[in-house]
Known about the structure:
Helices cover 23% and strands 18% of the residues. With 347 residues, the chain is an alpha+beta fold. A 4-stranded mixed sheet has the order 1-17-16-11, with no helix packed on it. The protein has a 4-stranded mixed sheet with strand order 4-6-8-7. It has a 3-stranded mixed sheet with strand order 10-14-15.
Amino acid sequence: MVPPSDSGVDDRASLPLLRIDNCLRLFAAAMVNGYYYKKAPVLSKLYTMKGRHLPRNEQKNDDDFDVWHSRPLDVHRWSDFPEVNQLVDRVFDDFTDEQKANISGRSNNSGKASGKTHLKVVLLDLYVAWKNDPDMCLGVMLSNDAHKVGSRYNAIHISRRIRGVILELETADLINVKGGSYSHSGDTKGNRTTRIKATGLLEMHFEGLEVPPFAIGRHEDIECIILNDKDTNEFGEPIGKKKSKPIEYHDTPETNQWREELTAYNNQLAATYIDIVSLEEPTITRLKSNGDKQTIGINQNGKFVRRIFSRGDWMFNGRFYGGWWQQIGEDLRRDITLNNLPTVEVV
């Protein structure tokens, strides 16, 4: 956040204005220099692995966190920053040979990505969650078919190896785990995936990291053109009780062009520091369409934009979703800055 001036005068009035539309067409940011900153749960099955298990709905004394204050694990979180790689190496090297084998997988059908790659994705997103909101936990799917290797929506080829990563991180006391719940009564309100959160021990590793905001992003091969099987609202949320799911498709000249243009847009977003100067804390809370509260992080990790089509047809929807600025009110949008320069929203 940008603090007010000592004089109490709104210094934004003396700065040049960038005119942008209500989707914040941030290509305008290329014209300025970059400003970088150094109910009831139902017990379910156990996930078994070579005689060991990851218990569901079993709590430990030190894992007292709100499972509903969460977001899904971002399986495309990525960074090649040296300190990030050093953290992953330290955690992996501390594992026993048996733990390394469980993470790496014991068969040839465990997926294309290495166990260490899976570990890196999980550690990175735990770090981002902790950095942006220390109370945030992550929802992770652990079923055998949760991650489809080879899907265009799974650029890093995350597979069931992620179960081994979660198990061994918990065994090493680096994460707390609260198992998922599923109601067979038809009432889906209490259903949730397994939740994970960094322990104090892992947070000590995080506190020693010096990672610039732009050093952590998403994998370069992440898909930004999405074809869903159902409709979504203006926030990209499913309409109705059934969750909308992305479906596979064959590329056409049009989808290739859309991807090329949106990739260029996302690259510009990634290189632009976007902020709200009036906030004291970098989070806001809003109500989702289903009445649930959602915490929106105002940070440099929530800028990736996708274009989502609906009903399995390129003729439906095609709107842009993803940027945190699309999930905030007009009163806050007026205070958005790009590389520390004020903006004007053009409706």
